[in-house]
Amino acid sequence: MANSDTQSIAILGAGITGLTAAHRLSQRGHRVRVFEQSGRVGGAIRTESTGGWLVEAGPNSLLTGEPAVTALIRELGLNGHVVTARPEARHRYIVRDGRPLALPLTPPALLTSPLFSLNAKVRLLAELLSGRRVRTADLSLEDFIRSHFGQELVDYALNPFVSGVYAGNPRKLSARHAFPKLWQLEQTHGSLLRGQLAVAKARQARHEPAPSIFSFTHGLQTLVHALASRLPAGTLTLGSRLESLVPGARWNVIWNDGEAARTESFDAVIAALPAASLAGLRFGPLGERPLAGLDAIAHPPVSSLFLGFRRDQVAHPLDGFGLLVPAVEQRSTLGILFSSSLFPGRAPDGQVALTVMAGGTRQPELAALPADRLLAAVRGDLTGLLGVKGEAVFQRHTFWPRAIPQYDLGHERHLDSMAACERTYPGLLIGGQARNGISVPACIAAGESLAERAAATL
Ligand SMILES: Cc1cc2nc3c(=O)[nH]c(=O)nc-3n(C[C@H](O)[C@H](O)[C@H](O)COP(=O)(O)OP(=O)(O)OC[C@H]3O[C@@H](n4cnc5c(N)ncnc54)[C@H](O)[C@@H]3O)c2cc1C
């Protein structure tokens, strides 16, 4: 075994997963080179700051509770840059019968809430009495939640929530893989509500705060830039698309920098790429594609439309995180984030920022519209749900043709193929949003674990 400082590792992809792994491995003294096809770092994390507006084109906020994230932020010296969501961001609105209604957060609020019918409320409370269930197979998220809470909660709670997280279809998503913590709660407690209460109680006993939402004063790019700026000079190779890998005791990595194909050899390779890029990776002299099956993972398109208005143009108090729209309401938006209510510094004084999400598995054709037609399509929702008047004073449109990987029923075959590929080709490690969870915190934890595993194999 060579000295750790002579070990070299290629990292494919400079999203948050690849950057976290690169940071850890270079800290351990390994020589790291990160290959990124685009001209920028951060992948899905993309912040723009202009004229007092702070636009998050991709992820908007992160959830606390992942220890790897807390430790990384502290270690990067970013604690002073963290902004936690305003207290009113606890409130979320769900659209029912064309009106945004507050999601009840306490048992008394539930009893009086117009969001759910009496039947649904009784069903919700009765879930506390659920016994253990024996599941021999995975099932769709919709079937899973219906079996606990009934159809109304599927339509007016699960469906909009899933649109907000996956922009996906709960009839297709796998309960086991898309929301593993819920699946686990059912295994251990039977009742999901009793399980949640037990988790909260255990957290209080450890004197840990309840999970909360946060970002950074200058947006999520802060994290990306802090990681990238700590890498030794020459680590990042932007504008370099990975084409093929030749496995061996040393791995030959072949990339194209736009002018020519280039090669360099490494002791190990970390692939922190989205599913389609993993699927396209060619291996060995014959150019096999052992991960070609990952092409079957659906990635519905999403458009994010960041809109700025004067405060007096919006009638709604915007006192919350935002609103979510259930599919049964048949509208044009998946949801609207109240971006300037969530965190300070998102809009100039006297103005407000809204982020409209459209498309997803529900209406993929909407996501692909140019900005003016998309704005026209969501206009009715802005006016009808939030009382928006007049034209936006600022706007940014970002189209994500392949936004979020869907952990649909049968996802284990993709997990198996990634695990099998690692076994066939020692020295290769695969991780990130296609494998370890779609949230930024899950990807940071994945980056940490990839670095650990890579260091252990060298
Ligand atoms: C619109 C949107 C909203 C979201 N909202 C949230 C949110 O609010 N909170 C949250 O926690 N998560 C959110 N997410 C999810 C989260 O942002 C992503 O899952 C996460 O950032 C993925 O990180 P990653 O590093 O695994 O992949 P990526 O960020 O996709 O990075 C992969 C990198 O690999 C590069 N690459 C691809 N192919 C090649 C190749 N052949 N050669 C070299 N480089 C290549 C890409 O250019 C990219 O930079 C959102 C995602 C989107 C799209």
What does the model show?
This protein is an alpha/beta fold and 458 residues long. It folds into three domains: 4-45 and 220-297 and 408-457, FAD/NAD(P)-binding domain (3-Layer(bba) Sandwich), CATH 3.50.50.60; 53-57 and 61-87 and 300-400, Polyamine Oxidase, Chain A, domain 2 (Alpha-Beta Complex); 116-132 and 139-205, protoporphyrinogen ix oxidase, domain 3. It has helices at residues 16-27, 67-75, 107-112, 118-126, 141-149, 151-165, 175-178, 180-189, 192-205, 221-229, 275-280, 339-342, 364-367, 371-386, 412-424, 440-457, and strands spanning 8-12, 31-35, 47-50, 53-56, 62-63, 82-84, 92-96, 99-102, 213-216, 236-237, 241-246, 251-256, 261-266, 268-271, 282-283, 302-310, 322-324, 335-337, 351-359, 394-400, 428-430. The strands form five sheets. Strands 8-7-17-18-19-16-20 form a seven-stranded mixed beta sheet. Strand 3 and strand 4 (53-56) form a beta hairpin. Helix 1 packs parallel to helix 16 (440-457), helix 5 crosses helix 6 and helix 8 (180-189) packs across helix 9. The radius of gyration is 23 Å and the shape is globular. It starts with 7 loop residues before the first strand and ends with a helix. Flavin-adenine dinucleotide binds at residues 12-18, 35-38, 43-45, 58-62, 241-242, 272-274, 277, 302, 304, 400, 403-404, 432-433, 438-440, 443.
